[in-house]
Amino acid sequence: MEKALEPVELCTEPYSFSNLSDSLKSLSNCDQNESTASLFNTLVQAIGELQLNRSTPITDVKIGNVPAETVLINCLKQLRLKVTNKHSCDYVLENAAKFLPVLDTLVHYILTEENATALYTKYLLHVLINWLSCSSEQENSERSILLQKYISSNKLQAFFCNAYGCFHEVSALLYNIHRSNCSQIEDIDLIESILLHDVHPNTSNEYTGFLVELLMSQNYVWASYSQLKHQARLALQDSLRDNFIADKPMETLPEECLKCLCHAFKTSIDVVFQVSKDNDLSAIREVALVLENIGHAASVEKFLHILQKDKDLLVNAGVLLINVHRLGQSPDHIFTPLKKLSTIQDDESLRSPITGFKADLIRLVGNLCWKNRTMQDLAREGELIPVLLDSCNIDAKNPCILFHMFLQDCKALLVL
User: What range does the record give for the signal peptide (predicted)?
Assistant: First the structure.
């Protein structure tokens, strides 16, 4: 049996339901603290009615003579504005043990699939977002910790993961909670939902993008990479690539990210040799994305120094390059060069994981050898220079080979 909420007891009484609109209009004349507590007491009464009528839809419940829906909409609408006021915001913070359980109970009743599109659902999320983000970073962090203590994270996550509704608002709330207290997101289901929602046209928004950036800056998602479903891994690699090619790429990637990329590349290159024109090329899409992202990372000086410590990375890239080049000598293989650039102008060909694959291998080898005697000697011992020289030809699948990439990589092998 649910425990009934006690009145907040920081004011004399809740708002009068007999003339609710007049009460709300007169708020500006009330003491800020008392009016805030009065709103919460009104919500406590509303919750009491909801608990008594839990099997009845909220739209059919009445509080006095006023529909519960009207009470919730008006109170939450007023409260979302109140918590943008610094004084009211601090007042709620000082009395968090009394106020936040009220909001948590509302989260329990309101954040459901049935209420997903209701206006009071959106207003409840607005209240939480505004209270969480109205002050300095330090104060917001304190509020975020309290929200995680009092508000059911499972309910919020389920509402987000299932994309029931108010998706922009619940995305903003989750982002502000995790950003404010710098907490790691360590729930695999939530991580996968964030990644997949961000690439879906119906759910992607700026806050899912911010959440993905937050994920990429944390160790947990990379340490748990192998636990993610295939589509979530692809979404993560796509987002990482977009980050690298952005005008202002994020440079807060943890070293765990580089370790993850290198491990994923070195343990999955056999997949490349198992594909042919008759196979589904999506099997190597993840390997191609990982390779491209390692190449991008190796173009950033502070990441390059880390990658150049991994001799096995160059060995694996070299072996793969030699074999891809050998397979390309066959007359009808997926890695056989195309001599006419016009043959690969359609969108499907440009999106193929084969397109640019060899060029990315050459770029990675060149970057790893850049001003690094150990890597240069390793490349010479592996007889990579003849392969690089033989790769200097027209290939519509790898147009960059013919231009600056080849020259840069040969220079990298010869110059300290």
Answer: none
Residue ranges of the domains in the chain?
Answer: 36-159, 184-253, 256-415
Question: Rounded to 5 degrees, what are φ and ψ at 332?
Answer: -140, 60
Q: Parallel, antiparallel, or unpaired for β 62-63 and 66-67?
A: antiparallel
Q: What is the DSSP string of 80-91?
A: HHHTTSHHHHHH
User: What is the reported pTM?
Assistant: 0.85
> Residue 117 and residue 126: Cα distance in Å, rounded?
14
pLDDT higher than 90, residue 107 = yes
Sign of CA dihedral 328, 330, 336, 338: positive
Of all residues in the chain, the percent with pLDDT exceeding 70 is 79
Place of tokens 């040799």: 273
> What is the per-residue pLDDT across 25-74, written as a single tens digit (0 to 9) for each?
444 434 678 888 889 989 998 999 998 998 899 999 998 889 999 999 99
> Would you say 349 and 382 are in contact if contact means Cβ atoms under 8 Å apart?
no
Using DSSP, how many helices (H) and how many strands (E) does the chain show?
23, 2
- Residue predicted with more confidence, 253 or 247: 253
In the chain, the amino acid numbered 345 is Q
Per-residue buried b or exposed e for 149-173, using 16+ beta carbons within 10 Å of the residue's own CB: ebbeeebbbbbbbebbbbbebbbbb
Residue 62's beta-bridge partner residues? 67
Decide if 338 contacts 396 (C-beta within 8 A).
yes
The token duo for 327 is 């397979």
